[in-house]
Each structure stands twice: as structure tokens, then as C-alpha cells.
Amino acid sequence: MAKLIKRTLPAVFIVLYVLFLTMPRFQQGVLGFLFPTLEEHVYPRANLLVLFGEHLFLVVLSASSAFITGLVLGITVTRSWGRDFLQPIQDLTALIQTFPPVAVLTLAVPAVGFGFLPAYIALYLYSILPIVRNTITGLLSVSPALKSAAVGMGMTPFQVLMKVELPQAFPTILAGTRIAVIVNIGTSTIGGVIGAGGLGVVIVAGLVRDNVSFVLQGAIAAAGLAFLADYLFELWGRRLSVSTARLAEGN
Amino acid sequence: MRFTFFTGICALATLSLPLVTIKQNRIVSGEDLRIFELHPLFGVAAVIYLGVLFYIVLRRRANAVNFLAAACIFMVLILGAVWSVHTSLAEWDSTGYGRISFAGGFWFFLLTLYLFLSYSHRESGSARVRQLSIAVPLLIFFFFSIIGLFENTAIAMEFVNHQKKFLRELLQHLYLSLTAVGTAAIIGIPAGIKAARSERWRDPIFKIVSGIQTVPSLALFGLMIAPLAALSSAFPVLRTMGIAGIGTAPALIALGLYALLPVIRNTFTGIMEIESQVRSAALGMGMNRRQIFRYIELPLAAPLVLTGIRISLVQSIGNTAVAALIGAGGLGTFIFQGLGQSVPDLILLGVIPVILLSVLMDRLFYAGELIATPKGVRAAWQS
């Protein structure tokens, strides 16, 4: 019984979340029930689904471009011709990682101005950090014996990278990407303040107009998105570990 | 050679991009100035500097000492150029509201400086050079700030405008993040120990706390508002205690919840990583469970617990900036005020202290971790 609940809970959560996002009447019902004294319950100036789309677009675009950059950077500094940069990159990422993401986001405004672009640049730059760090960790932890075996089989360096190193490092890289995406979803919520759109707009509007219902509407949507993304990464990671376990058993 | 060449390219970028922007007042867009536009002599010096630098780099003569020297000369050149803007201030600033903002070249200057110094730090064999690579740049920096490098810079002018408020918000910021992390440590350390001791509790504890971390900070602050507002309107007594939907109370609760995960996770790891032989040896010496906890587990786990608290604190300092949006004050006030009024310099007045505070706290706690590491463990690292 407990197992059944555990299995179906994510599905129930996803269905409820999709209903909340897509049906303004459902939002009205829930929020109206919670705050009977308020006059307005649903943010009137934009559909929640549209804002959700903006939010997702910003996150996916910045995370995927950061993924490519981080991967290339991580591969570069672990090759023999890029080793000079390994230590500096590690030190620099460790330093910048202590900068709060909000600071990086708002720092983009004096540099670039308001709108989508500064949010994209800040999120892109900031999410390179966990990805490049985990790429480096993953690639460095591939056993040297494995690499020499691959070289001994006659693989070229490029083949060793593609067929041995990257697959071995992938779970670690994925973990870094997961961190980047979750931080991105959180930070882009604040993007509402710098004119980048997204679900933060609803929360901020609620805070400015002193309307708790708007705040909750935006908060539910943003938190749900973060949970959903985290859950999908969890599933992906689990599938990876299952398939490597199978490989190890020789099936 | 690749690294030093890259450093040279960054120095080139510093010297060819606009170094500062001068503005008549805080609203208008300013005029960009490159180093050779400040004074032709600076241009000549810059060209000579680049020539010598690239000679050293391309001839592979770079080493810890000459890169440290290069860094110091570079500092004098750039900071001197920025400082010289003040002397010509009267020429273009008729209103007295004129201000200097740093532009792209200056940010490249900081990167180049970091590359120079990290290189000499890494490559030098002697502790003397390593100490000098920190001390000399700091001295040069202090010298220039004493002779008035930052006067008339935009951030300094915003600081002067908001001096009293700045101090208050800074203290409020520290109060919020330290209280939240302190509370999280009081709850999180026992919870981490519980998770390490009992397998039944482990899963639920970690599920809940990592779930909280997943929620976007702004959303969590928002989620705090509704129940607290309901509580304080249901029990007016609470309002007299300062608990309301908006303000310090929801901020502290949300920040505290956020700070839990690093503390719990690190306490848990710290205790789990102690080898079972160590425990058996203590048991064999006749220690009881409480003694094992007090004399074995606690000291051995302490550095990792402190790491957890450090991560929490750095994170909290950032999140506290967001708390300004729900009226909790702190340095975020300047950031969001600046965003609201479209005054970039006011944003910087909030952002830069937040970043400095994070880095400072991080370094401070890192030193604390080294001190808290038991002597025996430290000796084992060194051998």
C-alpha cells in the first residue's frame, strides 16, 4: 500500500500541476477557496501558462548553452594541450561560485540593461560553473587503466574521449547540470524584477500590490516547475545507474 | 606559455577597452574613456608595458617573480590612470554631480590581475613570494584608496548619499543571515546526527530538506507570507511580537529552512565517514557511547560540519538579498530600489557588498575549519 502511494504520488502531483497551469478556472477555484476575502485571485495581466513558457524558455536556453560551453571547457582543460588552464579554471570557478546568483543576475543590469538579454547572460555564465566543475571531476576520475586499455585497443584520442571518458563521466556531468538547472529556475524567478518575464512577474506583482493570492499563484507555479525538473533529472540519473549496473553484470 | 599568453591578451583587452565612463549625473548615459584618451603619456606607457609583457611571454621568460612585478606595475598604471580622471574632473563637471563609473576595461583589469597573481602564487616555490603576491597588491590598492581613487566614483557617491541607511541595512543583512544560519545549525546538527544513527529517519529527513532547497527562493518567501499573515490576523498577540506576513519573520523562517540542507548533509557525512575501526578502538579502550560521541565523533566530524555551516552562510547571504522584496530589509533594499528607479549605481551599492560579504565569510569560515581540524588529522594530511 505504502509502495503504491509512493509510485502514484509523482503522477498525481504532475496531473494537479498541469491542471493548475493550464486552467485559470482551477487557479481561481483553489485561490478563491484559500483567500475568500480578496477581490482578485488570479493575476489578470498575463496568462500563467504564457509566463510559464517564458520561464521555461529562459531556463532551457541558458542551461543548454551553458551545458555546451561547460562541456567544451571541461574537455579542453583535461586534455594535455589545455592542462595549463586546469588549475586556474578550478580556482576561478570556486571563487565565482561563492558569488550569490542573485548578485550575478542583478549585476547584469548595470552592464547590459533591463530585459531578457541580461537575465540570459547572467544565468548562462552562472550555470557554466557547476557544469564545468563536474565535467572536470568526472573526466579526471576516469581510471587511467581504462584509458590505456582503450588506447591499446587502437582507439584514437577522440574515440577514447567519446567512447570511454564521456560515458564514464556522464553521471557526474548530469549531476552538475541538475544543480545548474535548479539554480537557474530559482534565479530566473527573480528575473521578473529585471524585466525578463517569467513566473516571478506574478509573485512580484502580488508583493507590490499586497495581494497574497497572486504571490501564491506564482509561487506554486515556480516551485512546481523546480520540483518537476528535479524529478525528471532524478529519473534520468536513476536510469543511467541501472544501465551501468546491467553493463557491469554483463547483460 | 598558453596561460601566460592568455594573460597577455587580457592585459591587451584592459588597455584597449574603455576604462571608465564619466557622467554628468546619475541618470544620463556617460562618455567612455580609454586609457590613451586620458593622457597621451598613459598611452605610451601602456604600449611599452604591453611590449615588455609580450616579450617575456613569447620568450618563455615568465616566472613567479616577474609576473608579480608585472601585476604591480599594471596596478599602478591602471589605478593611476583612473585616479588621474579626478584631477581633470573640473574640466567636464560643471554641476558638481559628476561621477565616474567603471567600464569594461576595468573589469578586464581585475581579471588580468587575478590571472597574474594566481600564476605567481602557483608557480613560486618560496613562501616569501607567495606572501608578497598578496601583500604588495593590497598595499598598492590601499595607497590609491587613501589618495582618493574612489572619490567621485559612482558607487562612492551613492554610498555617501545613503551612508546611514547603508550601515543599517548592512547590519540587518548580517543579522538576518547569521540568525537564520545559527538557528539552522541548532536544528540541523542534531537532525544530521539522527540521520546518521537511524536508517528509518534518514530518508524522510533528506527528502524534506532537499525538497525545500529545490523551491525557488522568491517562491519560498512568497509561500511564507500566506500562512503567517493568516496566523497574525487570527492571533493579534503575534502581531505585537512582530510576526506578520511581510517583514523579518517570514524571511527568517524561509532563510532558516534553506540553510538546513548543507548543515544536515555535512553533519551526516562527517559522522558516516568515520572509519569503524576508530569506533572499535574507542570501544576497546573502554569508552561508552556518550564518550565516543564526545571525544571521537564530534571532533572528527567538526570540520565537515563547519563546511556545511559555511555553505549555508554563503547561500543565506545571497538569499537575504532577495528577502528585501518581502520587506525584510538588508542590502537587497538598495538592489531592488536601484532596479525600480533604473539607477545602475544604486544596484551596485547593494550588489558589491553582498558579493564581498559572501567571499569574506567564505574565507573566514574556511580558516575556522582549518583551526577546528584535530591536530592528528592535520598531521595525517601533511604526511
Largest sheet of chain B: 3 strands, antiparallel
Fraction of residues in H or I helices of chain B: over 70%
* Largest β-sheet summary of chain A: none
Q: Please identify the structural class of chain B as seen in this structure.
A: mainly alpha
Mean pLDDT reading of chain A: 89
- Uncertain residue segments of chain B: none
- Strand tally of chain A: 0
Q: Give the tally of β-strands of chain B.
A: 3
Outline the structure in words:
The complex is a heterodimer of chains A (251) and B (383). Chain A has 251 residues and is an all-alpha fold. Chain A has a domain at 50-200: MetI-like (MetI-like fold, Orthogonal Bundle), CATH 1.10.3720. Chain A is built from ten helices and no strands. The radius of gyration of chain A is 22 Å and the shape is flat. Chain A starts with a helix and ends with a helix. The relative contact order of chain A is 0.14. The mean pLDDT of chain A is 89. Chain B is mainly α. Chain B has two domains: 2-153; 163-382, MetI-like fold (Orthogonal Bundle). Helix content of chain B is 79%, strand content 3%. Chain B has 18 helices and three strands. Chain B has helices at 2-16, 35-38, 40-58, 64-87, 89-92, 104-123, 127-146, 154-161, 163-197, 199-214, 217-234, 236-240, 248-272, 276-284, 289-323, 332-341, 344-372, 375-382; strands spanning 20-23, 31-33, 99-102. Chain B has a three-stranded antiparallel β-sheet. In chain B, a hairpin with a 7-residue loop joins strand 1 and strand 2 (31-33). The relative contact order of chain B is 0.09. The chains are: A mainly alpha (251), B mainly alpha (383). Chains A and B meet through helix 4, helix 5, helix 8, helix 9 and helix 10 of A and helix 1, helix 6, helix 10, helix 11 and helix 15 of B.
